[in-house]
Amino acid sequence: MKKFVNDPKDYVAEMLQGLALANPDTLRYVPEYNLIMRADAPRADKVSLVQGSGSGHEPAHVMSVGPGMLDAACPGDVFSAPPADFVYETVKLVASPKGVLLLVNNYTGDRMAFEMAQELAEADGVTARTLFIDDDVSVQDSTYTVGRRGVAGNFFVLKAVGAAAERGADLDELVRIGEKVNSVTRSMGMALTACTPPAKGSPLFDLPGDEVEMGVGIHGEPGRSREKLQPAREHVREMLTAVVDDLPYASGDSVALMVNGLGGTPVGELYLVYGLAHRQLAERGIEIARSYVGEYCTSLDMAGASLTLVRLDDEISELLAAPAGTAIRVF
Amino acid sequence: MKKFVNDPKDYVAEMLQGLALANPDTLRYVPEYNLIMRADAPRADKVSLVQGSGSGHEPAHVMSVGPGMLDAACPGDVFSAPPADFVYETVKLVASPKGVLLLVNNYTGDRMAFEMAQELAEADGVTARTLFIDDDVSVQDSTYTVGRRGVAGNFFVLKAVGAAAERGADLDELVRIGEKVNSVTRSMGMALTACTPPAKGSPLFDLPGDEVEMGVGIHGEPGRSREKLQPAREHVREMLTAVVDDLPYASGDSVALMVNGLGGTPVGELYLVYGLAHRQLAERGIEIARSYVGEYCTSLDMAGASLTLVRLDDEISELLAAPAGTAIRVF
């Protein structure tokens, strides 16, 4: 294993310490519960947004805390759901009189932790609701999932409810917006290489040098098929066809297109993939109104990428365009 | 080779097409000269800034075009300097009455191409100046270099002169600012793995599974030493010591600290490295006033990172904090 790591068991804590040190004015790290929160949370005038999942998907979710985005993120260890009591403590720390919205990707372990935390917090008098995200069209059930997995499309649900929350929308309104965005969002990814969890020290699965995992999960879960490596345009066509046919997206639709890197793929390749996807969508008569290219939800150091489409309307477009800020920035 | 690529010889052109398609309102791709320029360049009220180098270092430099940054970038093929005539055509396309400033990392091939382009442009009546950047403390001369290499510290020179250019500073003033920032900027990087150029199809150099290249160049050039893989804190200490001792940076200094990923290292590891570097600087009494964590100047898919320090004063701090925008963004 070749990684920047000290003791692998300290990987997540040391990453979070670095994140807080780099953002001293805006973020706070709470080591007792392994959480990152906005320095100004909770605010009485807005619903607080909380998300968590296993670590290893950065910038999701600990680097998505900030104005117009999350109020707190409570990550578990690499690829492990956070403990329910840590989620509960997170909810209490950011509890606002307007309530708390929990955003959860659809994995069995995450659902259990967040549902238990919600019950505990409600018993304490906190108003809380939960939104589940399940945008991955690759497989119906999966290694860690009943139903579809939640992957990079999470970003769009969070961005939209985050913008609405910042303006004072109430919990019911946020649930309506989040469910609506999730309902028009679809993703699929593929792996060129396996990822290596720090504590394991070796690749999580075997992938021969001339094969790809089409429809891979963000924890290395199997996808639809093991295929031979092809020119990029063929892989893009297969992913895009699966995504487009699922909703389906149709000629005349206006969409957001995200090309998400899985951690080990350089941004130059992501823009190459973007160009191919853009043209293939244009051939179908689908208009790309918003573009996202970079890393949003990764799988440690996995080489690979996912494509996400969101069907836009005026409400969603406006929420996606609203100002926001996180630790991930250039300047 | 496992990459998103069609024909490797089209890699750069297809990446640039994707970049322009994702930014239709702000960027223009000119295929004849393989360049990316601002849609609103040239502007008569500002000096135009142009940069180029081999491709494979993205986001440098083609994804650094935008307000407060570059007016145009003319990349060569992967790890190859752009042809002098393409640089010349780029300079002509963005020539402003206030002149053109060429920013060039110190590599022999890039220097030759840009110096020839400047001469040709001046013969056409364009006022042009060139700024060389050489922040890498690793080695004095290198495979492609007489003198020190220019690496990720380039970002700070560009950001500062970009901010000043946007406000109407003249060429002399921009050269003064750029030389000043370069003179207080130092970097060093290390590779955990080699990178694989698309046209080569195999790793550029051999690096055993338990070794790192300390002081690696961004084209895979040898650094100071081949070393055994160590806990991250030891590697960070070695890089930081080399950087700090070089200027030297001293107790009481206020600095910007950049942790730059080389392409294959996930952002979680970069934040872990950031935390270690931050604390080691604090132990030396050096205050970190600005933080940068992410990919700024990469080497294709190389796993690794570099550290850059900039000694700040009021002028540099203010220029680094000024608004700017490029293709690399989250929202």
Automatic annotation (TrEMBL), chains A, B:
<protein>
    <submittedName>
        <fullName>Dihydroxyacetone kinase, N-terminal domain</fullName>
    </submittedName>
</protein>
<dbReference type="Pfam" id="PF02733">
    <property type="entry name" value="Dak1"/>
</dbReference>
<dbReference type="InterPro" id="IPR012736">
    <property type="entry name" value="DhaK_1"/>
</dbReference>
<keyword id="KW-0418">Kinase</keyword>
<dbReference type="GO" id="GO:0005829">
    <property type="term" value="C:cytosol"/>
</dbReference>
<keyword id="KW-0808">Transferase</keyword>
<dbReference type="GO" id="GO:0019563">
    <property type="term" value="P:glycerol catabolic process"/>
</dbReference>
<keyword id="KW-0547">Nucleotide-binding</keyword>
<dbReference type="InterPro" id="IPR004006">
    <property type="entry name" value="DhaK_dom"/>
</dbReference>
<dbReference type="GO" id="GO:0004371">
    <property type="term" value="F:glycerone kinase activity"/>
</dbReference>
<dbReference type="GO" id="GO:0005524">
    <property type="term" value="F:ATP binding"/>
</dbReference>
<keyword id="KW-0067">ATP-binding</keyword>
<feature type="domain" description="DhaK">
    <location>
        <begin position="7"/>
        <end position="330"/>
    </location>
</feature>
<dbReference type="InterPro" id="IPR050861">
    <property type="entry name" value="Dihydroxyacetone_Kinase"/>
</dbReference>
